[in-house]
Design goal:
heterotrimer, A alpha/beta (279), B mainly alpha (291), C mainly alpha (387), A: 279 residues, alpha/beta, Rossmann fold, 2 domains, six-stranded mixed sheet, 10 strands, 23% strand, disordered C terminus, B: 291 residues, mainly alpha, 12 helices, globular
C-alpha cells in the first residue's frame, strides 16, 4: 500500500503473480442474451494502476460491470482472496470496490452534495478532505444540480463519489472520454494521486494516459484476455500495440505457443493463451 | 359562474383522490418498472377497514373519521409492504411476472372483499360538517371536497419533503434516474422498493377513506375502478414523475367533470381522448424524461 | 447387432412418436366433433353426459375462450405485447354483429363481413396509436382504450347496446339451426370449427415472415432495426391479426350465448385471458388452449362448489374463500407465476426433458418465453455461478 516503486513487481498483471488485490479467472458475462465476455483472466496489482486495454467493443466495460455484478456473470472474482461472484452488486461494492462508470452516470436531478452524500458508505471513513482538496470546485457548486454541470465537472463528481470511501480497489472506466486535453491532464493527475490510496483497474483509450499511469496492462480481444504484461513493454512494442489495440487484429491465427501458468489458462481455449506469460 | 366554481372544486377534489392513487403507482413504476395492478385493492382495503373502525367509534364523530384515516393509511401500508416483500421481491427484475403477480393478487383480493363485505356498496356517513356545503363565490361546494384536497395536499408535501430531505428519499430519486448506479454505490436498492410500496400503500389507503366519503359508498370494486383512471393519470403525467402525477391528476379530473357537465356525460371518453393526444404528441407524458 | 440395436430402436421410437404427434391433433378434433353423439360422462369435470345441451354449451364456451386465448397468445407469446385491452375486440365482434343485424337488418353472413371489416379498421387505428409506446405503457394505453369501449357499452348513448342489461341476439336474422337450446350441438360444432380455424390462423401468422420478425423483435428490437425492418409495422400486423380473430370469436360468442353482456368488453375479461395464457404457458399454442379449457371448467366447477350446502356450513375463514371462484383462480394464478415458470406447457416440457425424451408434440414449443432474454440469461447465469 505504501510502496512507491511500481517496477517492484512487474509481473503483477500476469495471472501467476502472488497476492493480487483483485483476481479474476474465467470471467464470462451476458448482456441482453449475448455473451459479451467470453473468458477473461486478470489480476489487479496491490499497488498502482493496471490498465485494461483493447479496441472498441471487445468487452472492457462489460468486464468491469461483470466484476461488479451489474451484468450476469460467472467465473471467479476474488477480492483479497474472497470470491465475490455470487454476491449482488451492492455487497460487492461494500467489500471496498469503488466504481467510476463509463459515462459518469451522475444523478442529474440531485445536487452535487447529494450525489456525494448518497455515495457515503456505512463502515467507511468519508474522506471529504481528500475529495474537496482534489476538486475544490465541487464544494463551491455543492447546491447545483449535477445535471447542469459540464462534462468535466460531472466526471469530477463521478470520481469524487468513488474516492470518498476507503476502497480496496477502484474500477475506473474511460475517465477521459470526451474531455478537452487540459481536463485529460487534470484527470490523469487525480488518478495518479488516487492510485496512492488504492490500486486502480483503468479502462482507457488515451494511450498517453496509460503510459503516464499504468504499470501493468491486460489486453482484451473479442471478450477474451489475450495479453498480460508490463504496460511499458506493451506500448514500446509498436507491432504488438498496433495488432492488439490498432485497427485490425487477428489473434485467432496466431497460435498460443506459450500457454502461461495462470490458473484459468489450462482449461481455456487455445485463443485465450497468454502471449506473454511468465516463461 | 357558480356552476363553474362548483365543477372546479369537485374536479380538484376528485383530482386529489386520483393523485393519492397515482402518486404511489408512479413512484413504484419509476423505481421498479412494475405496473402495480394490486394498487386498487390497497385502496379498497383502506376504505373498508376505515369504514369498519369509523362505524365502531361513531361514524359521525371527528374521532371516528380521524381514526378511519389512520387505520386506512396503516392498512394500505401494511398490505403494500407485505405484497412487495412476499410476492414482488421473489420475482426480482422479472418485470412482466411481477405485473402478473399483482394482477392475480388484485383478482383474489377483490373476490375476498366480495366474500367478506358483499358485492353491494356500503353507504358511508361522516361527521355532519362533511355532509354540508360551504358557499364559495355563489357555489355550494360539498365540504368533503375540501378535506380531500387538504389531505392530498399534505400527502404531496410530505412526499416531497421525504424525497428531498431524507437519505431514503434521495435513494428513491436517484433510483428512478439510474437504479444500477445506486447499487454500484453499495446501496441495497431493495429496501427502497419496499419503501415505495409502503408509501404508495399509505397514500392509497388514505385515498380509499377519502374516496368512500367523496362517492358516498365503499365497494370491493371501488379501488379497481379508480385504478384505471390512476393508470391514465400516470401515463399522462409521465411515468415516475411525482409532479407529473399531481398535475395530471387535476387536469384529468377537471376535464372529466367539465366534459360530464357540458358535453353530455362524455367525461370518461374525453379522458381517453386526452390520453391518445398526449401519446401522439408526447409519448413520454407531460413530465416524463425518457421517450 | 447388439451394439446397433439401441440406436435403431431409439430412431424407430422417435419416428413413431413423430407420427403420434402429427396424428394426435386431427384425432382430437374428430373425437371432439363426435362428442354430441356420444354419452360420455366425466363426473366432477363436466356437469352431465356429453350429449346434453348444458355440457355442450360449457364445452363450446371453453372452445371459444380457447380460440380467444390463442389470439391473445399472438400478442403476448409471439409479439411480446402485454395488452390489457384485448376484450375490446371480443366485445366489438359480439356487440357490433348484434347491432348490425338488428339496426341495418342485414342477414348473418353479410353482417359478419361488415363486422370483420370494421374490426380491421378499428384495430388498425387503435393499434397504431397504442404501439407508439411499448412495454408497460402499452399495457396501460390498451387498458384505457378498452375502458372507453366498456364505458360506451354500459352507458349506451345510442340506445343500441342495451346498457347494463346487455344485448339480445336478433334471432330473426339468424338461421334457425343456430338458435335455441335444442340446437346447442350446432353451436358446439360452430365453436369447434372456430377453434380449429383460429388455431390454423394463429399457426400461419406465427410461421409467417411477420411472425418470425416479431419473435426477433421480442428478443432484440435493435438488431431487427439494424437489419432494416420496421418493428412497428410487424407489431401492428400481429396486433391487427390478433384483434380480428378476437372479433370473430366475439361473433361466435354472441350466437352461443344468444346475446352479449358488458362483461365481455371489460378489463376483467382481458385479465382472465392473461390468466389462461400464463397458466397454460406463455409462448405455447397448446398451452393457451389448455389454459383456457382449464380456466373455463374450473370456473364453472368452483361456481357450483360455491353454492354447495356443505360449503355454506363451513366456518367463515373457510367458507368465504371457497365461495369466491375468483379468489381461488387468482391465488392459483399467483402460485403458477411464482412456482411454475412456463405454466403447464413449460412444466410438461421440463418433465419431458428430464426424462430425456423431448418429444415432437406441440407442447414443447418455446415454453418459458415470458421475460426479456437478458433477464433469463441473468437468472441462468446466477444459477450457473452456484455450481
Amino acid at each position: 500500500m505504501t510502496s512507491t516503486s511500481p517496477r517492484e513487481d512487474t509481473r503483477a498483471g500476469a495471472p501467476s503473480s502472488a497476492e493480487p488485490v483483485l483476481r479474476v479467472r474465467d470471467l464470462r458475462a451476458h448482456v441482453a442474451g449475448q455473451q459479451v465476455v467470453e473468458h477473461v483472466d486478470l489480476d489487479v496489482a496491490p499497488v498502482g494502476v493496471t490498465a485494461l486495454l483493447g479496441r472498441n467493443g471487445v468487452g472492457k466495460t462489460s468486464t468491469i460491470k461483470a466484476v461488479l455484478g451489474l451484468v450476469g456473470r460467472s467465473g471467479t472474482v476474488e477480492l483479497d482472496g474472497t470470491d465475490l461472484v455470487a454476491l449482488p452488486t451492492h455487497l460487492v461494492v461494500r467489500r471496498g470496490v469503488g466504481y467510476v462508470p463509463e459515462d459518469r452516470e451522475v444523478f442529474a436531478g440531485l445536487t452535487v452534495t447529494d450525489n456525494l452524500r448518497l455515495a457515503e458508505r456505512r463502515g467507511s471513513e468519508h474522506r471529504y478532505d481528500l475529495v474537496y482538496d482534489l476538486f475544490p470546485e465541487l464544494k463551491e457548486r455543492g447546491a447545483q444540480a449535477a445535471g447542469t454541470l459540464s462534462g468535466g465537472q460531472q466526471q469530477m463528481v463521478s470520481l469524487a463519489r468513488a474516492l470518498l470511501n476507503e476502497n480496496r480497489v477502484l474500477l475506473v472506466d474511460e475517465p477521459t472520454k470526451g474531455l478537452a486535453p487540459r481536463l485529460v491532464q487534470e484527470v490523469s493527475r487525480v488518478l495518479a494521486r488516487a492510485a496512492q490510496v488504492a490500486p486502480i483497474l483503468l479502462v482507457e483509450q488515451n494511450l498517453q494516459v496509460v503510459r503516464d499511469l499504468a504499470e501493468h496492462a491486460v489486453v482484451l480481444t473479442d471478450g477474451r484476455s489475450v495479453h498480460h504484461g508490463p504496460a511499458a513493454d506493451l506500448l514500446a512494442d509498436e507491432e504488438l500495440t498496433q495488432r492488439l489495440l490498432g485497427v485490425h487484429t487477428d489473434t485467432g491465427a496466431d497460435s498460443g505457443a506459450d500457454t502461461g501458468a495462470g490458473a484459468g489458462a489450462g482449461a481455456a481455449p487455445r485463443r485465450a493463451a497468454h502471449e506473454e506469460g511468465p516463461a | 359562474m357558480s356552476t363553474v366554481v362548483l365543477l372546479l372544486f369537485t374536479g380538484v377534489g376528485l383530482g386529489a383522490i386520483y393523485f393519492l392513487v397515482a402518486s404511489g403507482l408512479s413512484l413504484i413504476y419509476g423505481l421498479m418498472h412494475v405496473l402495480n395492478f394490486a394498487h386498487g385493492v390497497f385502496l379498497s382495503l383502506g376504505a373498508f377497514l376505515g369504514f369498519e373502525v369509523a362505524s365502531r367509534l361513531g361514524a359521525t364523530t371527528w374521532t371516528g373519521f380521524a381514526a378511519s384515516l389512520l387505520v386506512g393509511a396503516l392498512a394500505g401500508a401494511l398490505f403494500a409492504a407485505l405484497t412487495e416483500r412476499l410476492l414482488v421481491q421473489r420475482l426480482y427484475e422479472r418485470h412482466i411476472e411481477q405485473v402478473l403477480v399483482t394482477v392475480g393478487l388484485g383478482l383474489a383480493a377483490v373476490a375476498l372483499f366480495d366474500g367478506i363485505w358483499g358485492t353491494d356498496p356500503r353507504f358511508i356517513s361522516g361527521p355532519a360538517w362533511m355532509g354540508r356545503t360551504t358557499s364559495v363565490l355563489g357555489a355550494n361546494v360539498p365540504n368533503d371536497r375540501f378535506v380531500a384536497i387538504l389531505v392530498a395536499g399534505l400527502v404531496l408535501l410530505g412526499m416531497v419533503l421525504f424525497l428531498r430531505r431524507t437519505r431514503y428519499g434521495m435513494i428513491i430519486r436517484a433510483g428512478v434516474e439510474n437504479r444500477a448506479m445506486v447499487t454500484a454505490l453499495g446501496i441495497d436498492v431493495r429496501t427502497a422498493f419496499t419503501l415505495v410500496f409502503t408509501i404508495g400503500g399509505i397514500a392509497a389507503g388514505l385515498g380509499g377513506v377519502l374516496a368512500s366519503h367523496y362517492f358516498g359508498y365503499v365497494s370491493p370494486l371501488l379501488g379497481q375502478t379508480l385504478l384505471i383512471f390512476a393508470f391514465i393519470v400516470t401515463v399522462i403525467g409521465g411515468l415516475g414523475s411525482l409532479t407529473g402525477a399531481a398535475i395530471a391528476s387535476v387536469v384529468v379530473a377537471l376535464l372529466q367533470q367539465f366534459a360530464n357537465y357540458y358535453l353530455w356525460g362524455t367525461g370518461d371518453l374525453a379522458v381517453v381522448v386526452l390520453l391518445a393526444v398526449v401519446l401522439l404528441t408526447r409519448p413520454s407524458g407531460l413530465m416524463g424524461r425518457r421517450a | 447387432m447388439s451394439t446397433s440395436t439401441p440406436a435403431s430402436a431409439t430412431a424407430y421410437r422417435g419416428g413413431a412418436r413423430a407420427w403420434v404427434g402429427r396424428l394426435a391433433p386431427p384425432a382430437l378434433v374428430l373425437l371432439l366433433a363426435c362428442l354430441p353423439l356420444l354419452d360420455l360422462r366425466l363426473p366432477g369435470v363436466l356437469p352431465g353426459p356429453t350429449y346434453t345441451p348444458g355440457t355442450l354449451h360449457l364445452l363450446a364456451l371453453a372452445m371459444v375462450m380457447a380460440a380467444l386465448a390463442l389470439s391473445y397468445h399472438l400478442l403476448l407469446g409471439v409479439a411480446g405485447l402485454l395488452s390489457f385491452g384485448h376484450a375490446l375486440y371480443f366485445g366489438l365482434g359480439a356487440y357490433l354483429l348484434g347491432i348490425v343485424m338488428s339496426e341495418l337488418e342485414l342477414g348473418l353472413v353479410p353482417s359478419v363481413l361488415v363486422v370483420l371489416v370494421a374490426g380491421v379498421v378499428i384495430s388498425l387505428l387503435l393499434g397504431a396509436v397504442s404501439l407508439r409506446v411499448t412495454g408497460i405503457p402499452f399495457a396501460m394505453v390498451t387498458l384505457a382504450f378498452a375502458q372507453a369501449g366498456s364505458v360506451l357499452v354500459r352507458r349506451d348513448p345510442g340506445r343500441v347496446t342495451g346498457g347494463e342489461e346487455g344485448l339480445r341476439l336478433p334471432t330473426e336474422q339468424v338461421p334457425d339451426a343456430l338458435v335455441g337450446v335444442a340446437d346447442t350441438r350446432n353451436l358446439y360444432w360452430l365453436a369447434l370449427a372456430a377453434l380449429v380455424l383460429a388455431f390454423l390462423l394463429v399457426s400461419w401468422v406465427q410461421g409467417s415472415r411477420a411472425g418470425h420478425v416479431a419473435a426477433a423483435v421480442r428478443e432484440n428490437e435493435l438488431r431487427v432495426r439494424v437489419l432494416g425492418m420496421r418493428p412497428f409495422l410487424v407489431k401492428l400486423a400481429i396486433f391487427v391479426a390478433a384483434s380480428v380473430i378476437a372479433v370473430g370469436m366475439g361473433m361466435v360468442h354472441l350466437l352461443l350465448n344468444s346475446g352479449a353482456v358488458p362483461h365481455i368488453v371489460s378489463a376483467e375479461l382481458t385479465i382472465s385471458l392473461l390468466l389462461m395464457v400464463v397458466i397454460g404457458g406463455v409462448g405455447s399454442r397448446w398451452g393457451a388452449v389448455a389454459g383456457a379449457v382449464l380456466y373455463v371448467l374450473l370456473n364453472q366447477r368452483l361456481t357450483v362448489l360455491a353454492q354447495a350446502t356443505w360449503v355454506h356450513d363451513l366456518p367463515a375463514p373457510l367458507r368465504i374463500p371457497l365461495s369466491e371462484p375468483m379468489f381461488v383462480l387468482g391465488t392459483l394464478f399467483v402460485l403458477v407465476v411464482l412456482f411454475l415458470p412456463g405454466g403447464l406447457a413449460g412444466t410438461v416440457a421440463r418433465v419431458r426433458r428430464w426424462r430425456g425424451t423431448a418429444g415432437p408434440g406441440g407442447s414443447t414449443e418455446g415454453a418459458d418465453r415470458l421475460e426479456d432474454v437478458d433477464d433469463e440469461q441473468q437468472v441462468a447465469t446466477a444459477g450457473g455461478a452456484r455450481r
